[in-house]
């Protein structure tokens, strides 16, 4: 490896922020404001990465072709050499998320058609029906865990539909934790966490390997069949098939789950905005964008400099990692007036929550549709929904992907 990873941290260097701190996980936004007041771009010597803290810096870096992914270099920086043999890292490297052209172009091209605007919009009636089915089961109970009983189930079923996972197999994904998002954090996993990530990839790899064989024998009208057919023509490896089906499953589930959980929590913490939404459901599409901005399911996106780049008077050296703190950018007062205020009628909201550039989230429109149909269904069917513990909810101990462990409610 020839790229410089980053400047060495001075002995005893204090981190500018600690993404594993429980207070930060509960509420990262005060820390983001402190960082932004210091500089739009700043070097964290302890973490050995740059921090982009405002909207424009994040948006520009995500679109700048002088930045991209250097996954193996990042893993070496975080964990040391000879770690790419670990199942989790090897599989992650094979995803389109961690690849660059021409591999990224080839991999993304195989799935782009499935996520075209017209095709995704045609999924709306199915999403609406699934919301109604879930509420039919839940409404008589009088209570639920919003995360476990609703926010987790809805996107899992939708992505299972798209991938062509047989209904008899879906309990594997509905009844268990399907992914580990800690491996996306800039703080290394410990050995136990890495072993759990490896085991998850091995378990799902065995399932999908078997499903691929079934689809080769009996093709269906689904995304796995399309990937297999396109992969056979484009030379898709088994690792690439496994990795990218996992990615579609993970991305298709985790962002929506946390949009629903984080968004409902925000609305119930702002009862005037919730009443406003109930009085005017026409605000729902804009409200979803505002909820994505206000408490983004994705808090940072990493990019590595391909060459020395000077931005805002500082030079980011070739091979150095930049954490684009999109959660901070979404609360940038230079972009959004009174950014810590939830305003479901805020005009022209363009959150950074789906990234940018060639890695802009393929499923952004689907996530928005699932969020919109969820809000519409809950407002119509459960107008008396009351959430518990809104002042001290239980957050997952992750930084990159922000979401709740549970969110109890009753009516």
What can be said about this structure in brief?
By secondary structure, the chain is an alpha+beta fold.
- Strand order of the biggest β-sheet: 1-2-8-5-3
Query: How would you sum up the global shape?
Result: globular
Average pLDDT taken over every residue: 91
| Low-pLDDT runs | 1-11
Number of domains: 1
Got a strand count?
12
- Element-by-element helix/strand order: HHEEHEHHHHHEHHHHHHHHEEEEHHEEEE
Do you know the CATH topology?
Answer: Cytochrome p450
CATH superfamily: Cytochrome P450
**What structural class do helix, strand and pairing data support?**
alpha+beta
- Total of helices: 18
Classify the helix fraction into a percent range: 40-55%
CATH architecture assignment name: Orthogonal Bundle
CATH class: Mainly Alpha
Strand content: 5-15%
> Radius of gyration in whole Å, from Cα?
21 Å
Cα end-to-end separation: 58 Å
The biggest beta sheet, please? Answer: 5 strands, mixed
State the main characteristics:
411 residues, alpha+beta, Cytochrome p450, 5-stranded mixed sheet, 3-stranded antiparallel sheet, 9% strand, disordered N terminus, Cyt_P450_sf, oxidoreductase
């Amino acid at each position: 490896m020839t790229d410089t990873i980053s400047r060495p941290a001075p002995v005893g260097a204090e981190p500018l922020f600690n993404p594993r701190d429980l207070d930060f996980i509960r509420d990262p936004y005060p820390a983001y404001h402190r960082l932004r007041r210091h500089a739009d771009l700043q070097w964290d010597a302890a973490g050995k990465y740059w921090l982009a803290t405002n909207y424009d810096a994040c948006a520009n870096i995500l679109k700048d072709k002088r930045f991209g992914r250097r996954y193996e270099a990042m893993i070496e920086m975080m964990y040391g050499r000879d770690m790419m043999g670990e199942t989790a890292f090897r599989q992650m490297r094979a995803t389109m998320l961690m690849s660059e052209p021409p591999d990224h172009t080839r991999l993304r091209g195989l799935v782009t058609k499935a996520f075209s605007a017209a095709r995704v919009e045609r999924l709306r009636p199915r999403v609406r029906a699934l919301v109604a089915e879930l509420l039919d089961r839940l409404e008589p109970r009088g209570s639920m865990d919003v995360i476990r009983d609703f926010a987790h189930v809805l996107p899992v079923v939708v992505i299972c539909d798209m991938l062509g996972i047989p209904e008899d197999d879906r309990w594997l994904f509905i009844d268990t934790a399907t992914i580990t998002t800690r491996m996306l954090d800039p703080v290394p996993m410990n050995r136990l966490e890495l072993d759990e990530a490896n085991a998850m990839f091995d378990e799902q790899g065995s399932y999908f390997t078997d499903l691929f064989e079934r689809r080769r024998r009996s093709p269906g009208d689904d995304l796995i069949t399309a990937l297999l057919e396109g992969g056979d023509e484009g030379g898709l490896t088994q690792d690439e098939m496994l990795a990218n089906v996992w990615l579609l499953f993970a991305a298709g589930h985790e962002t929506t789950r946390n949009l629903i959980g984080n968004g409902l929590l925000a609305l119930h913490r702002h009862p005037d905005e919730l009443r406003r939404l109930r009085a005017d459901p026409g605000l729902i599409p804009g409200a979803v964008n505002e909820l994505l901005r206000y408490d983004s399911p994705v808090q940072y996106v990493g990019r590595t400099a391909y060459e020395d780049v000077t931005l805002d008077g500082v030079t980011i050296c070739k091979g150095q990692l930049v954490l684009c703190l999109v959660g901070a950018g979404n609360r940038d007062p230079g972009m959004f007036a009174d950014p810590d205020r939830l305003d479901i009628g805020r005009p022209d909201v363009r959150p950074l929550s789906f990234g940018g550039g060639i890695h802009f989230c393929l499923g952004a429109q689907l996530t928005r549709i699932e969020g919109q149909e969820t809000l519409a269904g809950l407002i119509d069917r459960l107008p008396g929904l009351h959430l518990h513990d809104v002042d001290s909810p239980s957050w997952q101990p992750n930084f990159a992907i922000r979401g709740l462990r549970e969110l109890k409610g009753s009516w």
